[in-house]
Structure formats: C-alpha cells, structure tokens
Amino acid sequence: MRRISKLTRVAVGVASLALAATACGGTSSDNGGSGGGDKGDKGLAIAYDIGGKGDQSFNDAAFAGLEKAKKEFGYQTDDVEPTEGETDADKEQRLASLARQGYNPVIGVGFAYGPAMEAVAKKYPDTTFGIVDSVVEGKNVASLVFAEEQASYLAGVAAAKATKTNTVGFVGGVDIPLIHKFEAGYKQGVQDTSGGKVKVVSQYLTQTAEEGGFSSPDKGKAAAEGQIEKKADVVYQAAGLSGQGVIEAAAKAKVWAIGVDSDQYKQGALASYKNYILTSALKDVGGAVYALAKSVHDGKPLTGTQTFDLKVNGVGLSESNPEFAKIAGLKAAVDKAKAGIVDGSIKVKTE
Fold it and tell me: I need a surface site. Which of 86, 266, 308, 322 has the fewest CB within 10 A?
C-alpha cells in the first residue's frame, strides 16, 4: 500500500524559484558531478526530461532547485541530459549510474522515468529517489506531483478577462493525461469567468513525446499561428520547449501568450517576446526538488506521494508583467478564484 507522507513546506515559494529558473547551457562537469567519492559523499543529482536544460520551463525549474540545494548544502551535484530516441533501459542505466556514484537523492524529471525508476529503486534501497509528475511505488521513492489544473484554472480566468475577441487558445505538447489536466483547468477557468461566452480552441502537437511534442518550437509556432488565424488573442501553452514557438507566434501577432511552469516573462531567452507574455501558470518543480534534497540532507527522507498545490504555493500564477494589473478586473478575478480553490468552494476538473 502506498505510503503518503505529510507534505513538506520547506520548498521555497513559486515566485522566488521561478526567478532563478533561467539557467541554460553548461554541462554536468560544471556542477562537480565528475568527481570521485564514496557513497554518501555527494548530494543531489537530476536526470532531465525531453527538451533538457535550457527549455526556459520545466527542466530549468528543476535545475533551479538543484542550484539552490547545491549552494545551501555545499555538496556535489550532477545533472544529466536525455538522449534522442532513448529507451526505458537507457533511463534505467542513467539513474543506476548516478546512484552508484553516490548521489542521494536521485531525481528523474518527468513521468517518462516511471518504469526505469521502479526498477532501479529496488536495486539501490539505500538511495532516495524522486520522480516528478508521476507516482512510483517504492519504500525509497518520493513521487513529486502537482495540481497543474489549479494553476491552469487561474490562467483561464486571466485569459477570459484579457480576450477582446472572445476566442482563446490552448496548445498542449503531447496528448496525454498529464497535459489534459492543464487543458481541463484552463477551459473551466475560461468558462466559469466568461459564463460560456469565450470559446477555447485546443490543439495537441503530437500523440507521443517521441514525436517531438515537448521539444519542437516549430510545431508550437505553427499551432499557435493556426489558432491566431481563428481569432484567438490569448494562447496558453503547456508544451515544454515547444512552447517557445507558441510565445514567438503570439508576440509576432501582437496577441497574448500565457507561459507555463516557470515565470516565462523573466526568462532571458524569451526577453524579446516578454511584453506579450501576460502571465505564466507556475509549477514549483524547483521547490519540490529542493524539498526532497533538504529532507535527505536532514536525515528524514520524504517518501510516498507529495502533492504540491495552491494551498502550499506549489502552483500559482505569475504577475510579473505590469500589464497584468492594468487589465480591468483581471487581478481581482484571479485572486477570488485562488481563494475559492483554496477554501474548496471551487472544484477544479482534471479532465
């Protein structure tokens, strides 16, 4: 039976980590990961999801958590990139290698690490493993999951208040249950706020991750252009690296984009488009990574399912763009919706 530990509150706030999640470039050796050492001499290691470091979103948020832990605890860290077309066996080998080298905890960033982690965790019972966006059974595994639908609901509220055409868009990277949560929350937020007057146009880039749904800015750009042609003047993307193409298309058409995971208004690589990034649905992946690292460092490793939601600031909505506060009724509507979700009067759908 799955053990569910009490949710830790040591994660840093969504906004502060999002500010830090700007890393791109660099290699594992830059982080001291190539050094030697016996078991226990090293700290946190993360294995990236599709898109890798530099996606200005999901993976970079995880890297921000690693950097915070590295700075605070003063230990070695490692971060390893995925390879194109890799198999579960490749992921298993990567996780096992990090555990053998003495890293603890070892975190797989993304649901794709599920099968590999289930196998590796059994072989290294003295190592704490973490997985983002999936639940894996294991006495030494912490499943770091998020209420993405709640942040997406807030994004939908913002979109409904910002649109002038009464048409908004949603671009999902891959047609899978995880991304369905983003779409479901967004649609509900739009409909609840507009009373059904605002139309949501949705599109998924691919059926599988292997087809590039999370790693193809060109696909994201084409999808957003198609939605803008259909009069969408706010486009929300949950598409990883592909989302950069969505933001580019929105900026060129001078309509609003809504970012995801990190505060994309503050991402250096997106600076030329930031004036058209209305807000971002935040997901504190960095805070979850840091929380697990701290628990291991403190000798009280988290295990079981750890859920990060609005109540603990595990998800949220950014307000960095000054225009966010200038749109009539937008901030008040978002604040009201957030309070409703937290007190339970608003139940957000996941599909």
Answer: 322
